[in-house]
Specification:
The chain contains 4 helices and 3 strands. The protein is of the alpha+beta class and about 140 residues long. Helix 2 crosses helix 4. The radius of gyration is 24 Å and the shape is elongated. The protein starts with a helix and ends with a strand.
């Protein structure tokens, strides 16, 4: 058993950590996306960018330093959240945790209010998405 372990460790040391793409077997090489797939992904990126831009415009309405709107949204995307489904009440509540800065909290509340006014259903369900800021 100990001899087998030593052999395995030696084999692992001799195994290259990186290999070139050309050295991969043909069946393990990934293929380029087809044009239709690329167009689909480009559309998703475009929709995401336009959505973020709309949220930036909402944030800028109450921000003093409007050039920081995108960085505020980036920090919002990284914020911890609780996701609470309520199947009887037909809602999915996303509770965002309070940011350290009170001014940012006011802006995030405005964004939540705007998103809640759209009455968006979570895809594939009948649950309305509701966003709220909690302390």
């Amino acid at each position: 058993m100990a001899q087998n372990l030593v052999e395995l460790k030696n084999h692992r040391r001799e195994t290259p950590k990186h290999i070139k793409f050309s050295e991969l077997p043909e069946e393990d090489r990934f293929k380029m996306l087809g044009m239709k797939s690329k167009y689909f992904i480009d559309v998703i990126k475009l929709v995401a960018y336009r959505t973020e831009t709309a949220m930036v415009n909402i944030a800028r309405q109450t921000m003093r330093r409007q050039d920081e709107a995108r960085s505020l949204l980036c920090s919002l995307y990284a914020t911890d959240a609780d996701i609470l489904p309520d199947y009887e009440g037909e809602r999915l509540t996303v509770r965002l945790h309070q940011p350290a800065n009170n001014c940012n909290a006011i802006i995030i509340k405005d964004i939540c209010r705007e998103l809640n006014s759209t009455n968006t259903k979570f895809p594939g369900t009948n649950l309305n998405l509701l966003y709220e800021l909690v302390s």
